[in-house]
Amino acid sequence: MQPDEKMMARLKPGCICQGIKLISLLEALEDGAESFEDVVRICGIGKGDCGGIRCRQKVEELLAKRVAAKNIP
Ligand code: FES
Predict the structure, then answer these.
(1) Residue 23: domain span
(2) Closest to 62 in 3D by CA, of 19, 20, 14
(3) Cβ < 6 A, ligand 1 pocket
(4) pTM for the predicted model, two decimal places
(5) Which residue from 12, 25, 55, 56 has its CB within 8 A of the most atoms of ligand 1, so it is best to mutate?
(6) Rounded to an integer, what distance in angstroms lies between the CA atom of residue 53 and that of residue 1?
(7) Probe residue for ligand 1, chosen from 50, 56, 59 as the CB with the greatest number of ligand atoms within 8 Å
(8) Count of CB atoms within 10 A of residue 59's CB?
(9) Which atom of ligand 1 is nearest to the CA of 13?
């Protein structure tokens, strides 16, 4: 992750209902999370008012981007 991306991720919400920043989700993925459930276990999202609906979509988009980036030759 580039320094600029990291700085922005510290400001953007990852789980708005629990006040967890996007950086926590990204760090969970960097630390080896491979599913929404892994990210929940590592950083605690998914237990707020959205019941995992909003944040699951965000995590799945991040996982898809990671897969796409790995498949670029
Ligand atoms: S965005 Fe907070 S639990 Fe899903």
Answers:
(1) 3-70
(2) 14
(3) 15-18, 45-48, 50, 52, 54-55
(4) 0.88
(5) 55
(6) 26
(7) 50
(8) 25
(9) 1
Can you give the CATH number for the domain in which 19 is found? 1.10.10
Ligand 1 center to residue 1 CA distance, Å?
23
Say how many Å lie between the CA of residue 29 and the centre of ligand 1. 17
Confidence of residue 71 (pLDDT cuts 50, 70, 90): confident
pLDDT tens for each residue of 36-70: 999 999 999 999 999 999 999 999 999 999 888 88
DSSP string computed for 17-35: TTTEEHHHHHHHHHTT--S
Q: What token pair was written down for 22? A: 């996007």
Which of helix, strand or coil describes residue 65? helix
